[in-house]
Amino acid sequence: MISNQALLLLMLSNLWPSMALPFMPGNIGNLFGMPESDGRILQRSKRGWMWNQFFLLEEYTGNDHQYVGKLHTNVDKGDGNVKYVLTGEGAGTLFLIDEKSGDIHATKRLDREEKAMYTLHAKVLNRNTNEELEPDTEFNIKIHDINDNAPKFAKEIYFASVPEMSEVGTSVATVTATDADDQTYGNSAKLVYSILQGQPYFSVDSENGTIKTALPGMDREVKENYQVVIQAKDMAGQMGGLSGTTTVSITLSDVNDSPPRFAIHSFRVTAVESTEIGGAIGRIKADDPDVGHNAEMEYSIVGGHDTFNIITDQITQEGIIIIKKALDYESKRDYEFRVEVRNTYLDARFIHGVQFKDYATVKVTVEDVDEPPVFTRNPYIIEVHEDTAAGSFVGVVMARDPDADNKPVKYSIDRHTDLERLFNVDSVNGTITTLKALDREMSKWHNISVVATENSNPRQTTRVPVFIKVLDVNDNAPEFAMSYDTFVCENVKAGQLIQTISAVDTDEPLVGHKFVFSMSGGNPNFTIVDKEDNTANIVTRRGGFSRREMSMYFLPVVISDNDYPIQSSTSTLIVRVCACDSRGNMQSCNPEVLPFSDGLTTGALVAILLCVIILLMIVVLFAALRRQRKKEPLIISKEDVRDNVVSYNDEGGGEEDTQAFDIGTLRNPEVMDANKLRRDIIPEMLFPFRRTSPIKDNTDVRDFINGRLQENDSDPTAPPYDSLATYAYEGSGSLAESLSSLESAATEGDQEYDFLSNWGPQFKKLAEMYIGRSPDRET
Q: Which region is the signal sequence (predicted)?
């Protein structure tokens, strides 16, 4: 067995360049997975296999198959009876084994970065019987790494920033590369970083790829962007190692290390005197090479100023000069002040020894413009008495041209504010006068607008409101405050209060109203008591009033004021006499008519309304009577024959009407429809049809008619329809001749009806109707 092991070592010695362990006597045990000896004698157990692990270099470039190793067992006597079988990863494709010798070869070039180790299984069989001589045993083929992969960075370009003026060694960014080679074996994956471009401003840590500042005082205002090229090289940076590069774009971020500065320290601004308060007249700007909030500036006027102010435009960082007080070219034309600018945000690291503010002088020149006239007051308040006559003086308005030329001004009233044309203004001196008399009770205030216009430039106008207050004059007499409904009970006692009255006055005296109440003439029934608070009581002087004697009393009440001149009026108080209960509650009063009422009473309105209704009823009745028509009866007779008349309420069509009756039935009675009724109209009442006896052939029409007459005479239920017209057919030898009136040449007045009595009992009724009729009756 020892000789077999020595033989296996000789075979593996050929593979030593791919072995991971040096071929030394002390490492033989490790090669086969045995522990190192500590001086003791080791007892080896018997085993049939004499191999453990194979190593194979990647990226083999030879033309033949790459030899991996040899499998051998002590049961192989060299007689060819042993067969080696290989299974597992890549067996039969990547790896081939010689069945007789046990030599293993790789058929393709292998890459460790794709797969670093393959696990296979080997067993030994009897070639003749396929009997398994050695059990299935696992072994590994480890691919030995070579330096065939260059380092790679994750990005082709990196972006980083660092504050300007940073100290040396300030970390900027860290960039790392990766190497696909085996990091556990050799230096194939050991990387070293170096800087190829970007010196002397930056440096890189060779081990971890950290980029740092290498130059102090780097100023963003001098140079802002830097391109740094970093290289990563394997094999620990030795000659022959592979390398990869990346670019790092480094930007210096701004810090507030630069103060604002005026490019020029004297500014001249021109402003027109008509500029409104708050309006801008100019801009000034200081320069700050910083950016962002580090470049934000704040402007101010040193010591402040009464007329001007300066604010900062946050977008453009300019100082805007605005007006605080109206400019006047005529009073002052030139101004001068000092402006200070400073940074809003300061960095404490850079304020030492540097003044972060600057100053400039601003000179403002005011230009003259043609200004509109200016009134001496705005607004005007004028008082005038209401008794002022038309053409009287009210007041004066005055305006002047503020320009140096002091051009003349004319005045006018805006008539939109004086639609009633109550006032007028003198166009030269501005005197306001009245055109009409004023009435304070109509309007206490008049608000008009007076316009001042330059004579030489009508576009230059100014308006001023003029408020004219109309002062009161005592020109109105007091009167009752309301309409009083006063009554006195018949059972009233003397000295009883029946009404409290008050007064109103449209005038407004300065000391307030004071009314005096009195009753003109002596009144034996009532008296008035002035309460001296602008009210008065009406009190009875006696008791026992009677409605029969007097139903109504008229009391003249005189009301006077205390203003000058004194105004007074007499108002009439109507007192009704009413019946009251014991408590003094009114129960009934005589009807009254208010003679002093401006309108109609309720009773008068009701009477008028009743008259109108009666007239309308008479008109409607008269119209109905005129439209009513009296209907005359068809037959005037002493006998009532209405039960034999059926009205169809229809007018026949005359002799040309062939639809109402069919005369063919008379000529051919056999074809008559038993149930056939009138086709043109439905009678008001229907009777049951009565079948008649058939007529024999060759029967004379006269016999036929006589038979029908006899049947109908004996039938009490058969009404005489208007079918009498169907009997107009004349048979031969008729004694009655024609019944038609069309063949009669005589008028109705010449007609004689005596012959009807000779026609038999059938025409008795007809004879009575016509023979006994008055000759003057209309048919």
A: 1-20
Beta strands 157-163 and 243-253, pairing class: parallel
User: What domains are defined for the chain?
Assistant: 2-144 (2.60.40.60), 152-253 (2.60.40.60), 261-367 (2.60.40.60), 374-471 (2.60.40.60), 479-589 (2.60.40.60), 642-743 (no CATH)
Q: Are 339 and 327 in contact (CB under 8 A)?
A: no
What would the pLDDT profile of 560-590 be if each residue is shown by its tens digit?
888 778 888 888 889 999 988 888 788 788 6
Q: How far apart are the first and last CA of the chain?
A: 171
Long-range contacts of 357-360 (CB under 8 A, 24+ apart): 357/259, 357/260, 358/259, 358/260, 358/261, 358/262, 358/265, 358/286, 359/262, 359/265, 359/302, 360/262, 360/264, 360/265, 360/266, 360/267, 360/284, 360/286
Q: Where are the alpha helices (DSSP H) in 438-589?
A: none
Mean pLDDT value across residues 318-342: 92
DSSP E strands, 456-545: 461-471, 479-480, 486-489, 497-504, 516-519, 526-530, 535-540
Residue 598: phi and psi, rounded to 5, are -75, -25
| Confidence band for 116, pLDDT divided at 50, 70 and 90 | confident
Residue 613 DSSP label = H
Provide the pLDDT for residue 736. 54
Phi, then psi, of 349 in degrees rounded to 5? -70, -20
Q: Which residue in 737, 733, 723 sits closest to 679, CA to CA?
A: 723
Cα separation of 297 and 289, whole Å?
12
